[in-house]
Amino acid sequence: HICMDWEPFMLPYRAGQFFVGATLAMYPGPNGPTKKEMGQIRAFDLTTGKAKWTKWEKFAAWGGTLYTKGGLVWYATLDGYLKALDNKDGKELWNFKMPSGGIGSPMTYSYKGKQYVGSMYGVGGWPGVGLVFDLTDPSAGLGAVGAFKELQNHTQMGGGLMVFSLYQTVNLLM
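and the corresponding structure tokens:
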């Protein structure tokens, strides 16, 4: 839930350049428990169309989720955590702090009978523009610098892939 104030202005189009023609201010929406959350992971009951549970996050949930046969929901957070939730109730069962923020979807695979879960890390995109380019003007990066100004206190630059072996849990995940 990211809200924004949008103020359009005339801007000549230049090929190959960002083209928005507006000044933006982004900020957390009004729905989180503390009114400071910008993201959430939500599970729906597909037969009723109603939400089963919601897990709020401080920053926008920028990547996707991985659902496994064993009932786990995996995702990475912008502040650098890889998390596993119970699909039944959204309870957090496990987390690991990666060196940088996660913006991609976790993956799983099996090799020689062992199950693995992996996730790319490396904060980037609009959320990371202030951190990467050391910007401080809240309207810079189309307002992303203001929206994600606290991200620099929770993660750092850098990128890579983290893979975790899941001992004796192969049948839970495949």
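(Above: one complete record from the training split.) The longest strand covers residues 50-57.
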